[in-house]
Amino acid sequence: MSGNFTDGGMSGASDGGMDGGMDGGMASLLSVGGLSLTDELLTLAKGEQDILTGAQFKPGDFAPNLRAQAILAEFGRLDWPAARLLDAELRHDTEDNLQTWVGDLLNLVPLRARRLGEIRAQAAGIDKVFLAATMGHRRRAVTTLIELGLAVGHMVGMYWKWQYKHARPVQIYPGLMPVIPTPSHASFPSNHAFQSHLIAALLGKAHEQAGAGVAVRDQVLLPLARRMAQNREVAGVHFGVDTVAGSALASRVFPLLTSLQHVQDLLGEAEAEIRGENQAAILVAGPPQQPAWILATLPAPVAPTGGPDGP
């Protein structure tokens, strides 16, 4: 009983002290030069306020994810469903094809142990990987390009997933035992492959405009995209055919997306950010060296062995 009394007394004293301190602090903040913000400062006669005219909220001041939504609305007015997959890139779930694709995933199971950390991190967010590779947290336009790839990829990818409604690998062969929760949407095309390749293309374009040529795109960004896409297969949540389709879809959507003037302006802003910070490094150091784990990455995905009528 004494313990409860003591705890209650201490909690009451602590809460009372904190409340009193915060209230007092807030009261001081609301008092400027002896005037109360809720009284004198807010009831000044008309014409006595110092007004800043000509103020404008600049495009670069928008939060990256919100600016990406504004561009997404512009993109939505284009005929983006025309940027579709070719018939040869579609998934045909014949028994022979499924047997081949399941076998391919089983062959990747030994990679799970050493890639599990990557797989979990990439499942939590593609953006963080590209932010780390491009110092995006310091570059607002670069971060917006990443957010744009996510936003466009999400809308377009979900549209096609809804159209095709192909099953996830674990629905076809439960013995795959995915190492991460299977997402609650259809398998084809892979959105991790789609979004990561679209982001790589956007960032690669900005680096190319900044004077880095295609080195950053080909030696860093695309290997990152391929690694993330393949990790979804290693995890057991996508077939290879899903990955190939996602990558192909990114190549179709990219020209359409970059036809927007808003995106061209954004690429120019990202170019200026990259050029301002990295120009000397690009000229002196030459193309960036590939990290060891990229060198160990398997080759780019190839077309699946199964066709409309099987292997």
Q: Uncertain segments of ≥5 residues (pLDDT<50)?
A: 1-11, 20-27, 278-299, 305-311
Q: From the 3D coordinates, which CATH architecture of the largest domain would you assign?
A: Up-down Bundle
Major beta-sheet overview: 2 strands, antiparallel
- Following the backbone from N to C, one meets helices and strands in this order, namely HEEHHHHHHHHHHH
CATH topology of the largest domain: Vanadium-containing Chloroperoxidase, domain 1
Mean pLDDT, to the nearest integer, reads: 82
Helical coverage, percent range: 55-70%
Radius of gyration: 26 Å
Spatial strand arrangement across the major sheet: 1-2
Q: According to CATH, what is the class of the largest domain?
A: Mainly Alpha
- The N- and C-terminal alpha carbons lie at a distance of 77 Å
Fourth-level CATH superfamily of the largest domain: Phosphatidic acid phosphatase type 2/haloperoxidase
How many independent structural domains? 2
What form results from the Cα inertia axes? elongated
Would you give an account of this structure?
The protein has 311 residues and is mainly α. It has two domains: 2-32; 62-295, Up-down Bundle (Vanadium-containing Chloroperoxidase, domain 1), CATH 1.20.144. Helix content is 63%, strand content 1%. The protein contains twelve helices and two strands; from the N terminus they run αββααααααααααα. The chain has helices at residues 2-29, 64-76, 95-108, 112-124, 126-134, 140-164, 169-172, 191-212, 215-235, 240-257, 261-285, 292-295; strands spanning 31-32, 35-36. A two-stranded antiparallel sheet has the order 1-2. Strand 1 (31-32) and strand 2 (35-36) form a beta hairpin. Helix 2 (64-76) packs across helix 6 (140-164) and helix 6 (140-164) crosses helix 11. It is elongated, with a radius of gyration of 26 Å. Residues 1-11, 20-27, 278-299 and 305-311 have low confidence and may be disordered.
